[in-house]
Design brief:
It is a single chain. With about 500 residues, the chain is an alpha/beta fold. Helix content is about 45%, strand content about 15%. The chain has helices at about 15-20, 40-50, 50-60, 65-80, 110-115, 115-125, 145-150, 170-180, 195-205, 210-215, 230-250, 270-280, 295-300, 325-335, 340-350, 360-370, 375-390, 395-410, 430-440, 445-455, 460-465, 485-490, and strands at about 1-5, 10-15, 30, 90-95, 95-100, 135-140, 160-165, 185-190, 220-225, 260-265, 285-290, 305, 355, 370-375, 420, 475-480. It has a 6-stranded mixed beta sheet with strand order 4-5-15-10-11-14, sandwiched between helices. A 5-stranded parallel beta sheet has the order 9-6-7-8-16, with helices on both faces. It has a 3-stranded antiparallel beta sheet with strand order 2-1-3. Helix 1 packs across helix 6 (about 115-125), helix 3 crosses helix 4 and helix 17 crosses helix 19. Bound molecules: pyridoxal-5'-phosphate. Pyridoxal-5'-phosphate (PLP) binds next to helix 12. The site of pyridoxal-5'-phosphate has 17 residues, from helix 12.
Length: about 500
């Protein structure tokens, strides 16, 4: 199908083109021209053949690729997930299931999309007979960078350069990136926070002189951030999967509504849930969970998006974000696709750090969305209680979602079946999880992982255990205004290490 820009709905290009492009020239994000409808019966049949089938079915509705090609892609992407689990549902309480999205190679939900995106980019290069190679630039709050590099490593005709905030990621996340292997990957720390890194990358994409320069050297620039349409679509699939799986398992009757509760940073994951709803998955509420950086929770509660506030580093670093890029896609739909208005808001945000929506729109949002935040002590307490009560270990991001779900339930009394998205393996954040469980403090992440393993009688995942012996390959640091210099260096090396 074609996609259009959130800042100019007359600007229309094929979806697979958008996968190559990342962001629109006008600074807007690409969104589907319309929402295709899911055939729930067909999806129920597909679910019996596995996650890969459902995922291909959902993607086929958006992308100009046939089912044969898409099932090949999804099998490539997901067959290697640990234990063959792609998005298993774990029942915690009578009204809540946890959907585990962290069984991929980098132990975070980012793998769900980033094991697919590089393959889509390869397909797009072929489809459009593109002569240039693709250079992917990506800002990361911790998990995207690792997952993107793992997805792109040694994929022909692609290279990837990742920017992460120097002091804004967890120790294990930093080590994960610094030890990344692959001939076509680069990593650069940024002196600033995630928003600085994300803004820096965005401004490179919209700098036409820079884009031209890259092109002259044989590279088209693209993005692996959730602003890329090709990242969003694979994420829609697991919400469809969760619903039809629950129907197939007899937990739900077809047509029954569910809630999805999602720990939110850049608004990509929960936006995918919204897209699933627009495709016809029966949803009662989408519960948006923020950490202490509660810009989104405030926005949903009072209609004002305001980044003029203190930025906190939390134990859920992948959600330490003040400018949630993908909210723009929701605003576009909320306003019935008022591109000019969206453009105005986004410009206001860039200029003065805030914008407000009308009361009518606020009420309209509240019909489908509920939002709240979870502070640091609540996060730790939720990890502790969830383990005590259910013997189930969760990471700090998942804990934020679980905590907000509990608040929602207490406040509304709603007992609709709720699927809580679990976005990372707890061993990615061993120090914080251990401290939450029994108060032990240690500076050493590996020691913490071993202690956690002993305490909970669960194994340290191989991806963590092997890190300790890997050499650090990346140590570049750039000032936040100097990202173009780092990209130019990477281009000069031909997109190689
Ligand atoms: C990226 C990430 C999030 C936030 O997802 P968004 O799509 O940015 O809202 C939550 N948890 C984990 C573990 C993540 O890696």
């Amino acid at each position: 199908m074609d996609v259009i820009s959130t800042r100019d709905s007359n600007h229309k290009i094929p979806a697979m083109r958008a996968v190559l492009k990342g962001i629109s020239d006008d600074g807007g994000l690409f969104v589907p021209e319309y929402f295709p409808q899911i055939d729930i019966d067909a999806a129920c049949r597909a679910v019996r053949q596995g996650y890969q089938e459902v995922s291909a079915m959902v993607m086929a509705q958006y992308l100009e690729l046939d089912m044969h090609c898409l099932t090949k892609i999804t099998h490539n992407a997901y067959d290697g997930f640990r234990g063959g689990w792609v998005a298993p549902l774990v029942n915690l309480t009578p009204n809540a299931d946890v959907m585990e999205l962290f069984h991929g190679p980098t132990l975070a939900f980012k793998d769900m999309a980033l094991q697919v995106l590089p393959q889509l980019i390869s397909q797009a290069l072929e489809l459009y007979d593109e002569k240039d190679d693709v250079m992917v630039l990506t800002a990361t709050s911790g998990d995207t960078g690792k997952a993107a590099m793992e997805g792109f490593r040694d994929v022909p005709r692609t290279s990837i350069l990742v920017f992460y905030p120097l002091n804004g990621v967890a120790p294990m996340q930093k080590l994960h990136m610094a030890t990344q292997e692959g001939k076509n990957v680069g990593v650069c720390a940024v002196e600033g926070n995630f928003d600085d890194a994300q803004n820096g990358v965005k401004s490179i994409f919209t700098d036409s002189a820079f884009v031209r320069e890259a092109k002259q050297r044989g590279f088209v620039l693209s993005s692996a951030n959730s602003i890329n349409f090709g990242r969003l679509i694979p994420q829609v699939a697991y919400y469809v999967y969760a619903y039809v799986k629950l129907v197939e398992d007899g937990v739900l009757q077809c047509g029954d509504k569910v809630n999805f509760c999602v720990p939110t940073g850049n608004f990509g994951n929960i936006l995918a849930a919204y897209y699933a709803e627009r495709m016809g998955i029966p949803v009662n509420k989408l519960i948006c969970a923020s950490n202490r950086n509660n810009v989104l929770a405030d926005f949903f509660q009072n209609g004002r998006y305001d980044t003029r506030r203190e930025f906190f580093r939390t134990m859920s670093p992948s959600m330490d974000i003040l400018v949630s890029s993908n909210l723009e896609r929701l605003l576009f739909e909320l306003t019935d696709r008022a591109d000019v208005l969206v453009d105005e808001w986004m410009k206001a945000l860039g200029r003065s750090g805030h914008y407000s929506i009308s009361l009518t729109m606020q009420n309209r949002l509240a019909e489908l969305f509920y939002a709240d935040c979870c502070m640091e002590d609540e996060t730790a307490d939720t990890i502790h209680r969830t383990y005590e009560d259910y013997g189930y270990l969760i990471d700090p991001h998942t804990a934020v979602a679980q905590c907000v779900y509990e608040k929602y339930k207490k406040q509304t009394g709603d007992d609709t079946l709720t699927v809580v998205a679990s976005t990372a393996n707890p061993y990615k954040f061993p120090q914080d999880v251990l401290r939450a469980l029994n108060g032990t403090q240690t500076e050493d992440a590996f020691r913490a992982a071993d202690m956690l393993s002993e305490l909970t009688n669960t194994p340290v995942p191989e991806q963590i255990a092997c890190l300790i012996t890997k050499p650090v390959l990346h140590a570049t640091v750039a000032e936040k205004d100097h990202l173009p210099v780092a990209v130019r260096d990477f281009i000069e090396r031909g997109g190689k290490q």
